[in-house]
Amino acid sequence: MDPSQPAPETSADASAPGSADVDVSKDLADTSLRDRFALLRGIAEECIQEDELMNLLEKKPVPVCYDGFEPSGRMHIAQGIVKTINVNKMVKAGCNVKIWIADWFAQLNNKMGEEINKRANEYWPLVMDIARKNNVKRIMRCCQIMGRSDSEELTAAQIFYPCMQCADIFFLKVGRHLPVGMDQRKVNVLAREYCTDIKRKNKPIILSHHMLPGFKEGQEKMSKSDPSSAIFMEDDEAAVNLKIKQAFCPPNIVEGNPCLEYIKYIVFPWFERFEVVRKEANGGNKTFANMDELIADYESGALHPADVKPALAKAINQILQPIRDHFNNNSEAKILLNTVKKYRVTN
């Protein structure tokens, strides 16, 4: 294989190493082109480029896309719940979705540690070609995808991380559409630049979704190395209640308020409503139908943090209960979870 000619665009291949496909098996007859575009565009804070996305949907009834993550310790709800919400939207829009479990990347990033060995003769020449076409300074600008700044001292292996992630887009044959967090924007722009270098016409379309913050003031992204800042998929009810009770949630302030972000990006997409239970003296019970309505009440003071936190905890616990039941009732799952909990998670 010529490394400057990435794998051709094809439909998802269930045998692709390190990935799991979410196949599209529904009739799209009742979903208009604009509805499909709106579903996909609604995932992202930023889309590069919207006209390319519309053109893709017009020409390919079942576009292939992907999302991925490092298996770095326990899974928090940004990975487990927000990713589920986004994948469901992609499937509803008619996409065939690949999930990439990036364990080689986790090893490079000093965490746990893609079953890329079966096609190593394709993968590593592609990684090397991307590396050859970029200088170290350009690659270092992408290092935030590892949760690290370009001022940190990185190992030589870690510098390869952006080249490998860039290669994944072509190696997985995902076509032109992929959803990623805003923290991975730079490496996906790198992939578009690589397409220019090799004169590839169809560049990946980037959908950069919002990053859920941590619960502490000023935490732009939840951190696994700080368990109190994030809710994990198997957290029990008491842990969820305590974390949300202690969360930063200033009265009347919406900007930078993690509790309101959880409501916006998890509760409303999941339940399509937000239910607050309170005494009549405090305004009585209220069900919010949309985020704008909730924000108006919160900014005015009609909705207080003491109203928001118990309601948020109740909603999150309701979502997580089936996961808890699985780990409590399945002996194999329980053993795996206990094994993962023993790993030391780094930043």
Characterization of the model:
By secondary structure, the protein is mainly α. It folds into two domains: 19-209, HUPs (Rossmann fold); 227-341, Tyrosyl-Transfer RNA Synthetase (Orthogonal Bundle), CATH 1.10.240.10. It is built from 14 helices and eight strands. It has helices at 33-41, 50-59, 77-92, 103-108, 120-132, 136-140, 156-159, 161-171, 185-197, 237-245, 258-271, 291-300, 305-329, 331-341, and strands at residues 19-22, 44-48, 64-69, 96-101, 177-181, 205-209, 274-276, 286-288. The longest helix has 25 residues, at 305-329. It is globular, with a radius of gyration of 21 Å.
Strand content: 5-15%
| Average pLDDT over all residues | 82
Which bin fits the share of residues in helices? 40-55%
Low-confidence stretches: 1-19, 22-27
Kindly report how far apart the N and C termini lie: 37 Å
| SS-based class | mainly alpha
The total tally of domains equals 2
Strand and helix order: EHEHEHEHHHHHEHEHHEEHHH
Number of strands: 8
Q: Largest sheet, if any?
A: 3 strands, mixed
Shape: globular
Question: Order of strands across the biggest sheet?
Answer: 1-4-3
CATH fold assignment of the largest domain: Rossmann fold
At the fourth CATH level, what is the homologous superfamily of the largest domain?
HUPs
| Radius of gyration computed on alpha carbons | 21 Å
- Number of separate helices: 14
CATH class of the largest domain: Alpha Beta
The CATH architecture classification of the largest domain is 3-Layer(aba) Sandwich
